[in-house]
Amino acid sequence: MEGEFLIEGKSLLSLIIIVYNFNLTKMKNFIINTTLIIIAVIIYGCDKPAPTELINDVSDGEQLEYEILTNDLNENNVSRGTDTSGIMQDFKGLRNIISVSGIKITNQNHTVEFCLAQGFFFDWTQPVYYSNERLLGYKTIIPGIMKFDNNLARIVPYKVRFRDRGEFQDSVLGNKFILYRSKSGVGDPFWFEYGSPVSFEFQPVSGEPVTFDIPTLKEITGTVQLRGNSSDKNLEAVLEWNETEGKRVWLVLGVIRPGQMSSLPVYRFGVKDRNKLIIPKRFFNELQLQNFNKLVFTFIRSIEKMERHGEINLFVSSQNIHSIVIDIP
Amino acid sequence: MIFNAKILSQSSFGLTGLWGLSSKASVPFYNYETNTSNFSILNDWGISLTYGAEFSESINSNIYSISLSKTLSDHNLSGRFSPGYQKQFLFSTGEVIVINDTTTQSLNADYTYKELFGLGYSYKFTPQLSAGFTFRFFNQDFNREIVKPVFGDTLYLVRENLNEQINYWKGDLGINFFLNDNFSFSAASINLLNIAEQTENPEFEGYELKYETEALLAGSYTPVEFINLHLMYETSGSFQVSAAGFAAQFVYGLTAFHDKYQSPYFAGIVPAIGYKSKLFEIFLSGVKYFSDRKAEQNFSQFEDEGIHNIINNPYSYDKILLSLSFNIDGSTEQKVKLIDVELVEDIYPTFYDAYVDNPIAYGLAVNLTDEKLTIKPSLKIKDVNEAVIQSPEINIAPFDTVRIPFYIIIPDNYSAGKPVLSYADFYISVTSDETDDQLQKPMLVNGINAWDGKVSNLRYFIKRDVDFSMNYSKKLLSDNKQMLDTLPSALAPFYKAKILFDDFVKRLVYTSDPRATEEYVQFPKQTIDLKGGDCDDLSVCYSSLLESVGIQTALVDYKSNGTFRHVNILFNTGLTPGQASYITNNDTKYFVRKNSSGDDEIWLPVETTSLTNFATGWKIGVEKFNKEAISDLGIATGKVEIIEVY
User: Fold this and answer.
1) Which of B478, B523, B477 shows the shortest CA–CA distance to B502?
2) Nearest CA of chain A to the CA of B462: how many Å?
């Protein structure tokens, strides 16, 4: 066996070189055997190193969420839920909601600001369905009186517009509480500064009144830079905002048809409050932008919590909103 | 793709640990990480393969590298295919698609970093100094799911795979220096040259291998013969320390490394043990990290820090590796080494016969093997020999040292009159077709008239022009044929000597050496042509003429006269003491010597510088001989020496 290598076993690591007494005169055999060993090793060793599976330790609240708000781009109005601020808000699963919003809308470099406070109480015994038996919402009730910063909230009809069987329908689901004031002074005697609490009082028809402060957040101010254009299908947007230590910012991309005032929200991006998001061109290329003339980028910073007072549990939402309306390039 | 200069990273961690540069426990030639200069002690071809297993949740085995290396004289080339030099990361991107209130869809990514192959070159400037470079090719394969809106009848979001391959080359330089048997040093760059493709998709920006241009410095110390200590320091702050050694044909080493990107401070160790023969090396090594590599690893750390090294990073698993290297040496292994050569003296071309028996140099050779060998020495002197001159073979015991004589042959036609400073190449070999070692020494080759002052060596001048002398003598004697024919045959040598001398003295005058040097001796023809010479030249010439007609001569070296040394000759009359009266009745005028048969013969001393006539030359020669050789006991005391020409 002089000059030869013997190989046993199927696993490479079990390859054992038994004889290695090499003789220079047997160089040819040596090279042949060496080549055979290398080929055998290659054949047996065709695995690759084990991958490392990394655990994404980003909390749920810090994930980047993508959501479609409107599937049908032909709709002219909100498609589901209840609008509190011109922006979609989904009330499903809630028995009530108390909402305080600081809102800015920038259009053509002109910004208007206003405050909005609302209250809804849903009667789960009176659901409202689409004709296809899909749940639209619930009827609302007025179970008492409500004050924001000692201002008595007005009671107004709660109107919704939805599309059913291809037809737009308007409906009144009940009443809601509301206070509204623009910074120019038009509206109710209600105004709050960003970051300062809003005192809230609810006096039920029966039972003890409930009072607490609703915190408000730091003002959100966004900027939008568009790159490219819709005709070349390379339009993308760089969104930046004043970041805070808050965990979450919602960014909503909507479109406005020519001649209309209201927007159709299409995408919602939930991002960590890190001050920047680039919306890639692929999100614009599918929007049929030839049917719209404006884009609406809305920055939303909000907190939500449940206030528990005896048997009364109130879902409280405080949000700051900045919407920027830009012509589609 | 647009290429631009971009610095990427790969630091100096080798899967077989840190080794030194010495021949016993040396850096493997396939380890580019700790061997940036591509230094190799291979004599010819080297093939290596590293196969290993990685201990993750399961055990994965794969080929880490296959390399080929070739040494050509002082050049070394190598190539390495490294399919196992890769690291793959699977993770969730932290992005989700919200399908409805309760359903989300997470997006995933698969990033793989690979070093595919490398090329290296090194050059040995001197046995102490070598330098080289390596170029290595990397590939980064990024795959990531992204959200893509799709509009049909309705708008919805789907997952789509985004892929990008980013390739780059990395080049580094290294230099090695052996200060002595105990210390060696290395220096090399890390990420000196990087040629990379640009990342096109912003999603992948920031995930490329991290870069830092650094340098590494390494030193090896051998406190005792069988232990090497090594330190390799990177300017980034990372370092490795190792101890390596050997016993018989086994090598072993233990490397501990500190990596600034890993914890704890000593992130791990690389133990290794190997067996080295002349033909192959087999290494078993392992990488053991001190932190728990099976614990969950967070994406956020990877996102923030990335990785700086494919095979050694915070996510690397413990490994065990088997490296097999073959040293296929087509050239003959050096079995003997020529340590030094000592020259006996300068070359005197006319003494060619002397070199047949006397070495011109002695070499000191050592047997590097455990076998008894026969060394074949040989020699060639530039401008003297056209071919290598073989010297007698010498046997040498295992690991023994032996003194080797080198002999030379001077060609008959060598005729350079002036000295030449030449070179002698000394060779030793064991087999007939390969030289094991050689040395070159400068050597003075004198002109053909040069003489070392030893009277005994004048014989070579006498013999050199024998053809000329024979023609000259025969012509002269034939002119006296009538007289010679009338003589008794016993007196022929005497009268031939007389005729030749009388003719000789008529033609010549005594002169000092033409070149005013005592170490210049004329050949007989030159003396005749130049019509003169000193005692050396005249004695050589007259002796040559006598020898050419069969008259035996001897040189008489008178050493006793202080700084002035004199030479004249004796010639054999062939007469017996009983026949001495044929030429003289004065028994002080001849000298009796025994021939090879033990018979007494009459020899006459002749002073060749007495250029009057034979009788005077004989008379003066006798007087000088009787006084200095006989009366003053010169022969007995060695002050006068009679040197046979043949």
Assistant:
1) B477
2) 54
- Upper half-sphere CA count for residue B591 (Cβ side, 13 Å): 26
A62 interaction partners in chain B (CB closer than 8 Å)? 94
Q: What is the pLDDT of residue B484?
A: 82
Given a contact cutoff of 8 angstroms between Cβ atoms, the answer to whether A121 and A140 are in contact is: yes
Minimal CA–CA distance to B25: which of B273, B269, B216? B273
Query: How does DSSP assign B213-282, residue by residue?
Result: -EEEEEEEEEEETTEEEEEEEETTS-EEEEEEEEETTEEEEEEEEE-TTSSSSS-EEEEEEEEE-SSEEE
Would you tell me which residues 323-342 of chain B have a C-beta closer than 8 angstroms to some C-beta of chain A?
Answer: 324, 326, 328, 330
- CB crowding A179-211: b at 16 or more within 10 Å, else e: bbbeeeeebbebbbeeeeebebbbbeeeeeebe
Q: Which residues pair with A129 in a beta bridge?
A: A135
What domains can be seen in chain B, in order of their start residue?
A: 3-328 (2.40.160.40), 336-445 (2.60.40.10), 455-644 (3.10.620)
Question: A48-57, A221-230, B422-431 — which is least confidently predicted?
Answer: A48-57
Q: Express each pLDDT in B611-637 by its tens digit.
A: 788 888 899 999 988 888 888 888 888
What is the pairing mode between strands B86-98 and A52-55?
parallel
Q: Which of A134-138, B143-147, B418-422 has the highest mean pLDDT?
A: B143-147
Closest CA to A180 of A120, A119, A117: A117
pLDDT at B325 over 90: no
Q: Hey, of B65, B87, B98, B204, which one would you mutate to test binding to chain A, going by the most A CBs within 10 A of its CB?
A: B98
- Its sign, for the CA torsion B559, B561, B565, B569, is negative
Q: How many whole angstroms separate alpha carbon B81 and alpha carbon A42?
A: 12
- Does the structure show a pLDDT above 90 at A237? yes
Tell me the pLDDT tens digit for each residue of B40-75: 777 788 888 888 889 988 888 888 988 899 888 889
Give the whole-angstrom CA distance, residue B632 versus residue B621: 15
Strand pairing report for B532-533 and B509-510: parallel
Q: How far apart are CA A241 and CA B14, in angstroms?
A: 47
Closest to A233 measured CA to CA, from A194, A277, A281? A281
**Mean pLDDT, rounded, for B21-25:** 64
Cis peptide before B419 (omega within 30 of 0): no
Among A37, A56, A278, select the one facing B94 at the smallest CB separation. A56
Task: Kindly indicate the confidence band of residue B410, based on its pLDDT and cuts at 50, 70 and 90.
Answer: confident
Look at residue A239 in the predicted model and tell me its pLDDT: 94
